[in-house]
Backbone:
């Protein structure tokens, strides 16, 4: 996220019709918007289209931006909606969050509970481990993926994530918890094998 004061000044300049401010806004926020779009769509060309669509829609609607959230958070929300629209047009089969296996309280229940969170740091630094993690994130149901990406990968606060996705704070917390459990189950087999691989030599 950019500096809030910087965003506030950019917003004021954009509203005054300052084209240079529009360019600065794109330069500052497009990398984060692209990362979000790519992680949601899993397609580089579509991610680039989402970035363009996001800024076009934002600049057209700048007079309707009330400033109740940060400019960057507002852009995330526009990008999320743009990416979601593309996913829906693709008619990608996804698992609805509400249909995930759950206990009596509605919490996703992983089938394997290997505690891979306690593995040595070097195990997470290998290219293979990172690839496994990225693949698992890409397979998250889209509603869970959006929350996980914004909260854990882009570093937004819970409130900022809620603002960006139009959710309540409690809803964000619930989806983040389910995403973590989903990833834990998805990755448990890989890390279990990693622990029990015999050391040769």
Residues:
């Amino acid at each position: 996220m950019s500096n809030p004061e910087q965003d506030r000044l950019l917003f004021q300049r954009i509203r005054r019709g300052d084209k240079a401010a529009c360019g600065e806004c794109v330069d500052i926020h497009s990398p984060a918007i692209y990362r979000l779009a790519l992680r949601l769509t899993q397609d580089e060309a579509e991610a680039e289209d989402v970035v363009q669509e996001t800024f076009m829609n934002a600049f057209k609607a700048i007079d309707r931006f009330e400033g109740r959230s940060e400019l960057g958070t507002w852009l995330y929300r526009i990008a999320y909606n743009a990416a979601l629209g593309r996913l829906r047009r693709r008619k990608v089969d996804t698992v609805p969050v509400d249909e995930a296996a759950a206990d009596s309280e509605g919490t996703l229940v992983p089938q394997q509970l290997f505690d891979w969170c306690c593995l040595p740091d070097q195990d997470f630094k290998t290219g293979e481990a990172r690839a496994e993690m990225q693949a698992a994130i890409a397979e998250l149901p889209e509603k869970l993926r959006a929350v996980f990406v914004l909260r854990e990968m882009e570093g937004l606060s819970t409130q900022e994530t809620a603002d960006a996705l139009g959710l309540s704070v409690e809803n964000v917390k619930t989806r983040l918890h389910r995403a973590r459990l989903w990833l834990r189950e998805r990755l448990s087999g890989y890390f279990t094998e990693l622990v029990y691989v015999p050391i040769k030599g």
About this structure: The first helix runs from residue 4 to 15. The CA atoms of residues 26 and 55 lie 7 Å apart. Confidence is low (pLDDT under 50) at residues 92-124, 194-201. The two ends are 48 Å apart (CA to CA).
